[in-house]
Input
Amino acid sequence: MKKNVNPFPEKGQDSASILAEMKLVKESDSSWKNGKMFGYVFYPGDEEAAVLEKVHQLFCSDNALNTSLFGSLRKFENETVAMVAGLLNAGPEAAGSLTSGGTESILMTVKTARDYARKHRTDIAHPQIVIPESAHPAFDKAAHYLDVGAVHIPVRADKRADTTAMEKAINENTILLVGSAPCFPHGVVDPINEIGILALKYHIPFHVDACMGGMMLPFVEKLGYPVPLFDFRVEGVTSISADLHKYGYSPKGASVIVYSNHELRRHQFYVHADWSGGLYGSPTMLGTKCGGPIAAAWASIKLSGFEGYMVRASKVMDTVKKIQSGINSIPGLYVISNPEMSIFSFTSDVHDVFAIGDELTVQGWHLDRLQFPNALHMTISSHNVGKDNEFLNALEIAVRKADSRKVQNTVSHVLVSFVNGLSRILPGQWFNRLSSSAAGLFNQKEGSKPGRSAAMYGMTATLDNRENVHEMVLDVMDNIYTLDP
Output
């Protein structure tokens, strides 16, 4: 048996040494307070953050599993859900829950649709959800966990759901239709009204995933920007998810799932009445729920109010428009489609966008990479406000440097093509070993410079054998979540 490289400690450490060690380790994390990270962190500002940290600390040991003991958490959750439901124009019969994040909200949505169908439709043999290919993978994750089929439909040229294809995909097993407001990859709002018509026509529940936009689009609309109807004003919408820890600027993790009525929400709950430990009921996936995020979500809305969110949204959108205009003015670069809010991606038919992303990373800017097509992704929030000129200057430098490295990038692309070709003929186990070797070659070519991953992204984006990509990602995850000796 191998010796444990990190054995359970014999004795406790003093608090000072623990904090010192943790601060030292944290120094290697990517910085976000400088405004150069897009997404992942939604920061309300130092003053509000200080209040929310105190609120979180005040309730961090409380447990929402038992609301009869912690009545304050019941109040905060119910009022938070009601405030968000009102923002999304839900009717008086609306009901909902606070979850740990968008993924749990989506899991609950699919579970609710499945159990609702089980009760009301005896003809369903294999329940299926119909989702655009741009929908968040949490829907596929939910389908995987809940033994539900996921039917993917294409998007139109503008990256919005193709409702003609959606209607063709509907069959006797369909239990849920899905649209995004907006979708994560390109930040565009699906044709919610058109999907709502289908939902009414075929009597199928319809969920709007507004995890990204639920706490932003209402304010963007009020500011006068063109925003199509996406909420409960659209007939046919039966549920909406909205994350508070994104544009609600609440500490993680807090998301709201709102249903059009209580009858739907009942199918979300889990009850076990015959346990020797007593009656057990759970409204969402989690049992024990830390009180901190619940109280902080309530406090976030109370601190900002509608006016505060309007001010924040206005500043964010000003920055968005400046950055988008600057991107489109750089020859060869363009923003994909016409996003409604502060999430978008850009690409190029001339430049290697992944190489551009690498050059931005070297300068300290952190953007996500997309595929189909290859693109760079930006989620702009309050801590990015005012960084437009600095970013655009960095982007121009990145484009020039990426172009100057074309000879080196060509060598990398030859390796990509070689690996891609072999992926079609080699067994999966052999290919995984080859891809690891290829990764070593790429890294060796790049030397010690940080942040260069264009060749690897290029390889995974172009592989025709997606099963091999799946296995590669599993290998990477297994390495990430294994202690490095």
Observations:
- Residues 439-450 have pLDDT under 50 and may be disordered.
- The CA atoms of residues 15 and 21 lie 10 Å apart.
